[in-house]
Design brief:
- By secondary structure, the protein is mainly alpha-helical.
- The protein has a domain of 64 residues.
- The protein has three helices and no strands.
- The longest helix is centred in the middle third of the chain and has 36 residues.
- The chain is elongated and about 80 Å long.
């Protein structure tokens, strides 16, 4: 299986696990919600049994969190592999060619300083521009 396809599959599983964790955390009740069922209010016998959905939702959240961390490590592995392959190939050197001539870097004149300046002055020899044939 190609590395790009495998990375896409791991990424999709990673996003789905993240969304499922968010959903499960939002579904779970807080600890204070169990006090009402202890005094007889509310339906203490639910779809998940008299123990409630807490145990099932906690285990499901734990399983999805483990899956999320595993896919995170997988994505880190793919990023490292891409980084290594980019270092092997190297960065291309780009030269702009205009009308068959590679332009020269512009020459900058040294900044004019007043005689009272505390900065040292550097004498730069004048460079004659090369003639373009």
């Amino acid at each position: 299986m190609e590395l790009q396809v495998l990375e896409t599959i791991v990424l999709v599983i990673h996003v789905l696990a993240a969304l499922a964790i968010i959903g499960l955390v939002l579904i779970q009740q807080g600890k204070g919600a169990d006090m009402g069922s202890g005094f007889g209010s509310g339906a203490s016998a639910t779809v998940f049994g008299s123990g409630g959905a807490g145990n099932f939702l906690t285990q499901a959240t734990t399983g999805l969190a483990i899956l999320f961390f595993l896919t995170s490590f997988g994505l880190a592995f793919f990023a490292k592999a891409k980084s290594d392959s980019a270092n092997v190939v190297g960065m291309p050197v780009v030269e702009q060619v205009i009308d068959g001539v590679v332009p020269q870097m512009p020459e900058f004149e040294p900044a004019m300083r007043s005689q009272d300046s505390e900065l040292p002055t550097i004498d730069v020899p004048a460079v004659e521009p090369e003639s373009q044939n």
